[in-house]
Design a protein that fits this description.
Length: 497
């Protein structure tokens, strides 16, 4: 156990409590109300109206402040709903209770039974009739006026961050609200919520490096999933025409303000729909979330106003290089010209990369940072879209889109490839790329091809990054500020690097 003079002092108090027969960690506590309920119940009553009120309430919470003077004092208890002030005085408590409460430490949990009153300054409070120690806190909280401000410590000790920074609690309450509303949105539209495996025999469904693990009993190499896509589409084959999953994905990549190797993704699939239908659905979903969570379809993010009002802008993949990225037109069709621009901008083309893959790297460099307002990039080349349906009029392109907001990707969706012959050929191309050194190329999933051979109706599917969406709707600059316990480098290194 970590010790310090302050911790040792509190340990000594525990010993004194034990000698006095006062348990430091009782387990028979019940409460009648939360702080916010009492504050709401008597919000409209003034001091005179509450004078003589004998109705009693039982609350419990962490002591966040305490000040006493002679025979009376004030304290603030904080529970999950908020804070309430406690007024305690010697004549209203037993001698033992008064001494106990007076000697309490900031951070201790207390139970109080009391009646409502207003102080001379007008603050609604509980006049304590009975008090009990609920939990003795051994570790002091951060200094009162500065709180927990060290960024690395906030992430490593999120529990302390939540105790002392109310705005951090609010972010995670909003995150819960966002996830609940997304779930309700899809359930109301007859989507079935499902769960698919977290451990896969092969890492498919997205272009990413997986985390590997091992099943001892079966002596089997497994991978934490990088995406649930191929299993969700198997369910569509099985007859579930509308499915969604809200769950974790794992990608063996770097950590940054925009990336965490373990992240939350919404994926949904709708039979008899096209990518155009999902773009409209996405516009509607995000507008409703912004309105419900932020009170308006216009949201301020990092001092920029973002409008979630439909329709969002739509720009074809290759056209965005010129129209938004400002690159010369020849880059669109000339591999050598694209390679030259890449090298001049410290993008090192790999030998196996074709023009489409190079375009994707150039878009990341020159286009994405400029996509501040919600914008769909559409018409992705088939060469970099191994699971998307080809465009019937332009088969070298697919019916695929990505949504960008505030310079980062938020969603990826497309009309699904349901032709097993074409899918088999795409997987074969991915294997060629892997043989040439592309570590993120998808494996050849024979079972998925066999599933498609049983027939999958025309379907559209999409994935939305929940963490990045929460960042937008809570005005947080780093993904670590919307993940309760983000992955960090070993202690002592820079968490932002």
């Amino acid at each position: 156990m970590k010790t310090s003079p302050l911790i040792n002092e509190r340990l000594k108090k525990c010993e004194d409590l034990a000698e006095a027969g006062v348990p430091a960690y009782p387990n028979d506590i019940t409460v009648s109300h939360q702080a916010a309920e009492i504050l709401e119940k008597f919000a409209d009553l003034d001091r005179d109206a509450l004078e003589g009120n004998t109705e009693t309430f039982q609350v419990a919470g962490r002591m966040m402040s305490s000040r006493h003077f002679g025979k009376a004092g004030f304290a603030h208890l904080k529970d999950t709903s908020g804070k309430i002030q406690i007024f305690f005085e010697k004549q209203g408590l037993s001698e033992e209770e008064f001494k106990l409460f007076k000697k309490s430490d900031i951070g201790d949990f207390y139970w109080v039974e009391g009646s409502p009153m207003r102080t001379k300054t007008g603050e609604l409070s509980l006049r304590a009739h009975k008090v009990r120690l609920v939990t003795k806190a051994l570790h002091p909280l951060p200094e009162k006026w500065h709180g927990l401000t060290d960024v690395e410590q906030r992430y490593r000790q999120r529990y302390v961050d939540l105790i002392v920074n109310d705005q951090v609690q609010e972010v995670f309450r909003k995150r819960s609200q966002i996830v609940s509303q997304i779930r309700n949105y899809f359930i109301e539209r007859n989507f079935l919520e499902v769960e698919t495996p977290m451990m896969h025999g092969m890492a498919g469904g997205a272009a990413a490096r997986p985390f590997a693990t091992h099943h001892n009993a079966l002596d089997l190499e497994l991978y934490l999933r990088i995406a649930p896509e191929l299993y969700l589409k198997r369910l569509v084959v099985g007859g579930f025409e509308r499915v969604f999953e809200l769950n974790r994905n794992f990608r063996n990549e770097g950590i940054s303000t925009q990336h965490n190797p373990e992240f939350t993704m919404l994926e949904f699939y709708q039979a008899y729909a096209r990518h155009e239908d999902l773009m409209k659905l996405t516009e509607d979903l995000l507008a409703k979330l912004a309105l419900n969570v932020c009170g308006s379809e216009t949201v301020t993010y990092q001092s920029q106003e973002l409008s979630f009002k439909a329709p969002f802008a739509r720009v074809p993949f290759e056209e965005s290089l010129v129209e938004i990225g400002g690159l010369p037109k020849e880059v669109v069709t000339d591999l050598a010209a694209a390679q030259q621009v890449a090298v001049e901008n410290d993008i090192k083309p790999k030998a196996y990369e074709g023009l489409a893959a190079l375009h994707a790297a150039l878009i990341e460099k020159f286009v994405e940072p400029k996509l501040i307002q919600p914008t769909f990039i559409t018409d992705f080349p088939a060469a970099i879209s191994p699971l998307a349906r080809r465009n019937d009029q332009k088969p070298e392109y697919t019916e695929r889109f990505e949504l960008y907001i505030a310079g980062r990707e938020i969603a990826n969706g497309f009309s699904e490839l349901n032709d097993p012959v074409d899918q088999e050929q795409r997987f074969a191309s991915q294997m060629d790329a892997k043989a040439k050194g592309d570590v993120e190329a998808m494996p050849f999933d024979e079972d998925f091809v066999e599933a498609l051979m049983y027939g999958m109706p025309p379907t559209a599917g999409e994935g939305i990054g929940i963490d990045r969406l929460v960042m937008l709707l809570t005005d947080q600059a780093s993904i670590r500020d919307v993940i309760a316990f983000p992955l960090l480098k070993p202690k002592g290194t820079n968490p932002e690097s």
